[in-house]
Every structure is written in C-alpha cells, then in structure tokens.
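User: structure tokens for Aminopeptidase N, please.
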Amino acid sequence: MPTAPHVPTAPVPAASVPAAPVPASDRPASGRPSVPGPSARALVPRGRRRRTSAALLASAVSVCLLAASAPATPLGIGDRLFLHLGNPGYDVASYDLALSYPGTNDKALQATTTIVARLTADLDRINLDFAHGTVRSVEVDGAPAAFTTAGEDLVITPEGGLDAGERTRVTVRHTSDPAPAEGRDGGWVRTADGLAMANQADAAHLVFPCNDHPSDKAMFTFRITTPEGHTAVANGRPAGVDRTRGATTWTYRTLHPMATELAQVSIGRSTVLHRTGPQGLPLRDVVPTKHREGLEPWLARTPDQIAWMEARVGRYPFETYGLLMADASTGFALETQTLSLFERDLFTEPGAPAWYVESIMMHELAHQWFGNSVSPRTWSDLWLGEGHATWYEALYAQERSGPSLDARMKAAYEESDRWRAQGGPPAAPKAPEPGQKISIFRPNVYAGAALVLYALREEIGRTAFERLQRLWVTHHRNGTATTADFVRLASDVAGRDLTEFLEPWLYDSRTPPMPGHPDWKSTTEPGSRSTELLAPMAHRPGGSREQTR
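Assistant: Done. Predicted tokens:
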C-alpha cells in the first residue's frame, strides 16, 4: 500500500485491509442510539477553491504538494458496527457505473465510476470506500486529481479543495476484480456462466468506489458492455441497448434511491422473462437459459405474492421486481433492490416443501418495503429490515401449510435469551467477527427481531399493529429510519408512550415476559426446540442455503 500521494496517471491498487472491528456498546442512557455524524478528521480548514488559469496549469504540482501536507487516513461516519464504513462531508446524489466484461469471470472488468455529490462541508480531500481493484485515474469536476489509499479508502485530493454547498463530479477509472478478496466476504459472485453481486453488508466497495453505507442512498445508472452471447441486467428499468462490433452495452436506471449494499448486476448466458404484476407492475426474471422451463412454475408465483404483500402494507414501492436465479452456491438469498438474488438449486433440487421455498421468496420480497425502500440509518437498525421480512415470511408460510406463527414465536422465545447472549439484543447487535462482516446476520436480528414485533402486536392489538406497518413504509419511503423512529411512530399509533415497553425488548440482555403468554419461558441452553419450527427464520452461519438476508 503506497504511503505517499501518486500523480493522477499512476495506477494504485486499492487496499484490502479490513477496518478494525468496533466493540459493541451498551444501550445508551436514553435508550436511543445517537445517529452517526461527520468525523472531524474530514473537516480540514482551507481557503476557497482557486479558479485561475494559472492554478489550473500548475494543478499537478500543487495537488501533490497539498496532498503531502498531512497523511491520508481512512474515515467513517461513526457506525458502531463498521467504524470505517461510509465517509463524511458529502451526500451522493447519483452513481454512473460503466463496466466492461471481458467474456470470462476470472479476469478483471474495466470500469468507470462517476459520482455526483453535494458537499456538506468544506473538504480538502474526498474519501471513497474502495478496496479491491486498481485505480488508473481520478478526475474531480473534469480536472485530474491526486489519489492514494488509506485502509479501505480511496483518498482523493482535488486541486484547491471543495466548498460546502457545491455539487461535485468525481470520475474514477479502475478495474473491478471478480476474484474473491482475501479474508473478505461478498462483492462479485462467480456463477456458472458469469457474475452477480452480493454486496451486503459492506462489500459494494469491493466492486466499485462508493460511499458504502445505507444512510447515503442515491440514484444509479448502470452501463454494462458484454461480448455477444451474454446478457446483462441490473437494478431498475432498461434504458437502452446498443449493439456494435460483436458487443452489447446494456443500460439500466433506478427510479428510486438505493443503498450501495443493494446494487445488483447480473452478467451471463441468461434469459430474461417478462410478466405483469398487480396494477400493471412490470416484472422481469433472470434465469440460466437451460433452466428456464424448470424454474417457470416458481417464477409464476410472484404476482400473487406481491398482491399478498400489498394487501397488508400498501403498494409495491419500486418500478419493477423480479428474481435473479444464479447458477452458483452462495449459501443465502439476498434482497437486492428490484432484483432479488437466489440460488438456482433452491428451486430445482427436490426435497424442500413448497411452503418453505415460497416463504424464502416472500422474505426477500418483503425486504423491498422493509430494508430497501425504508433502509436502516445505521447497521444497528438492521433488525427493522430483517425482523419485518421474517415476520411476513412466517405469516405467509402459515397460510401455506407451514408452521403457525404462534408456534414459531414460542420456539423463538425459548431460544431468545441464548441468541441475545451470543449476538446481542436485536437493536444492539454485537460487532461482527474480524474478516467476517456478515456475522452481524445472526438469529437475534431475524427471528429474535420478529419476536419483538409479535410482542408489540400482543401489546397494542392487531388493528393498531397493522396500521403501524402501513404508516412505517409510507412515512419513510425512499429514505432511512432508526429504531428511535420506530418507537416514536408505534407510540403515536398506540396513543401512549411505548418506550418503557419496547426498550427492554430491543436492548436488554434478557428477554422480557411475553404479553398474553405468561407460560412462555426462555433459556440459554441450546436446542430447546426443533430447528424445523425456526427455519428459515433463524439465520444460521455456516453456508446452509436457507440463509436469508
């Protein structure tokens, strides 16, 4: 890793040093975690941006001198679970990601990432998260800029700095490496015929430079160039297909803001199937061409599943939806926005009952409302997405010959103290294990968080609870929200302050008594209930395909 700034033309390999894990903190005295703010390290005093032609002519020299004035350091926005994730001082408005696929998934893609952002502070440097590729050049507002790496940050020094309130355009030309990053999970997933993405929780910056935190959502444009015979699909709606000299460039644009962890690009020898969902919603599924017929009966269920969710929480929040059936062994399904990622084998291997497979489909669909449209402000708010997705997964399974919701919740209650001891309470999960950032996806934020929702419904009644669900996804649509926001809205709906009721469920090390079920008991001893009642609700680290995220 270089220790001194490089001139703009020198390629710099992005660092692959994992951020230091953050020790889990206890519940704040107020019971409500504070929202991360900008790191003071980003707010370097400086003069106004120089705009004279003389300064532009001397830009290469002056940029290097300015960059050398202080060592580059990795920044972060203060997320208690991911110390160096995200960057202060700017708000990304849009990403334009151009990728050129070489025709094989064992070679790096050539890429250009263009970021348009609004400056929220005066900055001498712009830090981007990027850790698994070679940076060839950087421009800021059309002018070459110096760059170096620090930890997992790409640190860019524009000539003269940038002023708060301005909009700036950062263009990074780089490679995007599909080979697994050493000691890291996520990023590109190699499939039998190409690539897909799995960026949760902190792996988008293994694919492209970005502000890799769900609190900074943005619009996305994808331009993917592939050799003849390959198909590329990404989040959002198609915005053009250009074919020239044996290659095709596929363009997609989102119509709603998206967190970086939810980005999806599929490249392969695929077939795209189209159908129509409720209220004319365009649906598209991406499947390996040779498995098209075998997967169709499962894909045909999606319109009814969307209608089922809309009847409970309101209209689907995005411009399209579909399933990406990856011919790969991932160990999980993933709610990438408008195009959920699944293992193809889940649907083609015999053995799993239909209700089980469909409930996994429902989990990822429910995430489009809970987790995607309404994203967690911090990673400690992860339970708001996973708990709700697990809740609707369980309700749906109950209606299709699966275990009853009450039976599942009782089983989860019996395991809850053990989950809290191992992973922390739902709204204050323990820090991830070093090199395994996805270890925050523990049972406490799945079935443990659904148990919080069950307790809330028992406390305020079914009518108020269902109204709360609808209001939650309406009030925070296309934005982010915190645990404190949820407690506040629940209190408004119930007509009384629910802080004293909800905080023990969200933050205590022991599970509170379940309203209406005084006979339910929790234990720290393992194996108190059969795993069949909890699967696929409880995320089980270790690679079983029943994992859902």
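User: Anything notable?

Assistant: The first strand starts at residue 12 and ends at 13.
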